[in-house]
Sequence to fold (1052 residues):
Amino acid sequence: MHLKQTIDISSHGRLFTIESNVNFLDLVATSVLDGRLLANNKAATDLFCLTNWTILLPTQRAVRTIRTAFLKAKSEKGAILLPNIRPIAEGDEEATLIFSVADSISNTNDLAIPPAIDKFERHLVLMQLVQRWAKTMASSKNKVVGTSEMTASQITRLAGELADMMDKVEIENLSLDRIFDLVPEDYAVHWQKTVEFLQIIATWWPLYLSASGCISPTERRNRMILAEADRLSRSPPKGPVVIAGVTGSVPATTNLIKTVYGLTNGAIILPGLDKKLTKGDLRDIIANHPEHPQYRLLLLLKELGVQIQDVQSLKHNYAAPLHSNTKMRLISEVLRPAPSTSHWHTLHERFSPKQAQTALDTITYLALPSEQDEAEAIALILRQAAEHPSQSAALVTPNRILARRVGVRLESWCINVDDSAGRPFSQTMLGTFLELVINAVACNYEPCAIMALLKHPLCRLKRTASSIRRVSHALEIAVLRTSYFGHGLDGLEQSLEKTAQNMLNSHQQRHAIFRLEYQDWNESFELIQDLRQAYTPLTLLFARPNISPLQAFTSAHLQTAEYLAAKPLKADANSKKNTSELWLGEAGKVGARIFAGLLNSELPECNITCLDYPEIYRALIKKETVNSCASPHPRIFIWGPYEARLQRPDVIILGSLNEGIWPKTMDPNPWLSRTMLSDIGLPTPEEKIGYAAHDFSQLLCVDKVYLTRAEMSNGAPTVPSRWLMRLQAVRASLEIKTPHSAQPPWLEWVRLRNAAKPSVPIKRPAPKPLLSLRPRELSVSDVETWIANPYAIFARHILKLEALPRLGADPDASLKGTIIHKILGIYLKKFPTQPPTDIAQELDVIARRLFHEFRSNPRIATFWIERFRRFATWFVYEDVRLRGDSKKSLSEISGAVVINTPGGPFTLKARADRIDLSIDYLVISDYKTASNLTNLTARAKAGYSPQLLLEALIAKHGGFSGLRAAPVSKLRYISAAGGDPAGAINELKIENIQAAILDTEHELTALIRHFDNVNTPYLATRRPQFHYDYDVYAHLARISEWLGENDKVGAE
Fold:
């Protein structure tokens, strides 16, 4: 239905404008009360007659503000009955029109407007249409690349873009049929495919609407406004009708303005119409400059058939300050069309330098280094305004990230500000919880996903807050901070059982695990069972390979979330239900509305796979917002540019004035070029910029204005907004310098807050614990650490600190080495005296048994197992050579030797990977998973990696269990890398091993004696001969702080 009508303007209402430097809503209220708007009204004397008035404003916020203005204007006369004040649009003229037609047309029986289609239904139907199109294209002769492999994410994105395009076309009251006439049929194959795709909204979608008996939300709004306009024309109301502050940027509102203007008791009040424009400027702007702030208003006057000089100006009874009028004229100069900016050269002739200086001094420009600095400066300005009881202040910005940053900073000062744009539902506490619920099952309960869910404040699982946090911590320590091998909740339970069994069998475990109590283990098992119970509905659906209804997934999602959020039963005997906080507050209301909509039985059937649901759910809630703030500050605000219309705080901050943000760069249409969009009749990007320029010019006329921008964004330099550069050019033309420092010094305060104190060089940590606290027992691998970095021994063995593994870490080289050591150890224990007939077969049997529990990990299944098989093939020929003339080969042999020193006995422990026993000597071997052992062998010979020599020292003293003291004839490393080469044997070429062992014993004794001195510190060191890649205590030792300050580190 087209919004076109012919009105008789021979007898029409009145047309006004209010200048930009005047409080618009205050003046509207005053003008209504003193009778200046319409002749023969009794508002000035009869307060009851106001109830016959109807005033239409652009936003709900403007409605609230003008009510306050009426009460303030009549405060000296006591009570007042307010007019009928209603918003035409809320949030944006392109958003939900909430014009209430029901009350106005209650007596009109012949009006029947079909209901608007549900937004969820629209999105789901468009998804199905896109999917049907993709299948058609995939099977056609001229196949479109990628259509057969379209994912749920791509389909939902395309459906959303189609819905956005439909809204834009319908808002402008246009038809999509013109798309097909834009170019010839033989223009391009690509364009023909685009046309076929757009058939979804041009042909298929209207057919669906017709069959369902519904219309689109935008079309319904258009029809409602047309019906109201028609009613006003046929049955003019007795009371006055006023439309104030509406620019008519949408055809529907333009139609309503024309209708009200056609009433004898109608009045239109335009915001900020510049009546000082010359006739040449007027013609030029309408013809060539849609980006000009006056373009939309001039176009409206043209449609009304009114000359600009016929528009009356509403003014206060008192004169505005001179500098205010000067400022308004200067802003008009700043935003004049680009071809006429040559007039700036004559500004000094048309403006008094003193008046211009005074006017522009009310505008403060702040360029901040970063976005965070900009938010900090804005928060400081708002904080200062909050300190003055009579001052109001607002941040106006289209940048929602900046708005949120400022809001968070103000909250740290207990200043709660309600952002007019609201907060995305997905970013609320409830929204993130629902996302975590579905993400956990979608990624098969990976540790990071499970831990994020369990630590969310809404997750309770029928436990108290302290109980769920404690048991979650226990599960994290015992299972989630180990290598992750998959298998979902079953895998977590198996890992927990294995960890518990290893601890009972006294296998080596982390200190943190030994600190867990018996209750922690029991509750961890119970927690996994509760998770399995909670996720039963979703697990059943995600286990199905075929498709299921969307509502089945939504219902399961809801059931799981409610189970996870359930609190423990109250002690009250009458309470038999678990309560939760899911649906509390504004976010809870929005969440309940979302799920009620998705579970609506009237929604069309939509069958999807388990892989599709997470993406579809995110797409459906993407545009849902929550408008809430607990006890917002009455004088501090954060608005979007549209919400700020007609508002006039004492101080206003225009933030994010960077090109691309304000004005916003128009997103390119996925299907139509700029020329095509213009040919259809959609507004050009320049028109959108013109609307934004009008908002900017209105806001710039506030008495005190701050203009802020960040010079860097995401690490890249930004470009100042075109309006800022124009303002600077006008300043330069008038020879008015931009003040280098603002008062107060906001920039300096921001720098001071972010500035760190001058760094004072620190000394290396050099703890000197008591002798009684110093370790008297170390392993051979600890000795190497002791030599390389004594501080690590202090942290591990004295402070008892141990680094926790990463959450859900992938299997690493340490685990690989452990598995290979176990395989070879089992092999030698099974065949200690001689190798089996089929060595490869025996190794394969052992390997398959040990690798079985890790088979679900692709890295292990693909690389580790195959590499070990290559090593096993090499080992078949080398094991015989390794055994040589030995009588027995042993593995994983524990040993120890006690070294007596003046400070007391010191125990050196070891666990040898392999010892081959002959009648008179021993051969000690150490398995390594590295492929190149040349560097390690050289370090061992030099004494920097003394592990093998220390094991030889233990063997010399008969310290290995079950072995007599015997000399060592060889020391060697065996590489089990499985690469190229598959294995290698590197023997330590030491001329006199016995002398080397004796030297090692003397050096170890000297080291022990050195640290038995209470004045010897456990220094944090860095020496070029050692590697520190795996030093988990480096951050505790503050290595990066002192390393550059001490030139002697490398020499120690």
Remarks:
- Residues 119-214 form one domain.
